[in-house]
Design a protein that fits this description.
The protein has four helices and 14 strands. 27% of the residues lie in helices and 23% in strands. The chain has a five-stranded antiparallel sheet. Strands 1, 2, 4 and 5 form a four-stranded antiparallel sheet that branches. Its EC number is 3.4.11.18.
Length: 271
């Protein structure tokens, strides 16, 4: 069942979204060459506790995955793209890191992810990351009231294909609000003008992720970490978005570097 949110409820989700955006920006500065992934995880745990927020990942036990997830971040390195289990790994120069997090504040949830290169970037990695960010922006801009869910999926896939990447249709975005995963599923590939109508009050997480040279995936023995099947690099971008009468509203926007956190705009384009 899809629950449409009121303007007040979207505002309460935006409180969680602002914290998620600010913490992701902070963590992208914490992660550096020589830093252990567990240090990034523990930094996030401290900040979430200080804020009085609640991690949506801790003790999460979906049908996929192996047992409850006992961390507050998904940290995916290089060929890992989704659900990366934080572990004892020291970041190396040139590593491509994806950070995904979701928290609840006051009973309302927000979810976001970003990818970046630690240290010296490979141009091919920067292209891959750019593709997910451009696809995210396209998906957000397609989340117009009166449109269809397939408009978002088709926009994401069009960008992926324009960059030369194929798209895995197994994992994608999702509804979000009172809990992290709600209806509907938001696929990263689909047909425009198909699917449910996008009505004001719909809140969804849009999350394109691509592998450099395949659309096939495999799981680590930890039961969580999803990697490209051929070992190629991967990237992942995500925002929580509300469909409003005036268009899409990004609830998890990250603050502009050098600007006060509360000065970040709330328009449609992705960070």
């Amino acid at each position: 069942m899809i629950e449409l949110k009121s303007a007040d409820e979207i505002g309460r989700m935006a409180v969680a979204g602002q914290f998620v955006g600010e913490l992701l920006a902070e963590l992208s500065g914490v992660a550096a060459v020589g830093v252990n992934l567990m240090d990034v995880e523990h930094h996030a745990r401290r900040r979430i506790k200080e804020r009085g927020a609640e991690s949506c990942y801790w003790d999460y036990a979906p049908s996929f995955g192996s047992g409850p997830f006992r961390n507050v971040l998904c940290l995916s390195v290089n060929d890992a793209v989704l659900h990366g289990l934080p572990h004892d790994y020291v970041l190396r120069d040139g590593d491509l890191l994806s950070i995904d997090m979701a928290v609840g504040i006051g009973g309302w949830v927000a979810d976001s992810a970003l990818s970046f290169v630690v240290g010296t970037p490979d141009p091919a990695d920067l292209k891959l990351i750019e593709a997910t960010e451009v696809a995210l922006e396209a998906g957000i801009n397609a989340a117009q009231p009166g449109g269809r869910l397939g408009d978002i999926s088709a926009a994401i896939a069009e960008v992926a294909h324009s960059y030369g990447y194929s798209v895995n249709g197994e994992f994608g975005g999702h509804g979000i609000g009172r809990t992290m995963h709600e209806a509907p599923h938001v696929a990263n590939v689909g047909r425009a003008r198909r699917g449910i109508k996008l009505e004001p009050g719909l809140t969804i997480a849009i999350e394109p992720w691509f592998c450099r040279s395949t659309d096939k995936i495999k799981y680590d023995k930890d039961g969580w970490t999803i990697r490209s099947a051929d070992g190629s690099r991967t990237a992942h971008s995500e925002h929580t978005v509300a469909v409003t009468p005036s268009g899409p509203q990004v609830l998890t926007r990250r603050p502009t570097p050098g600007a006060p956190a509360d000065s970040a705009p709330t328009g449609a384009t992705a960070a």
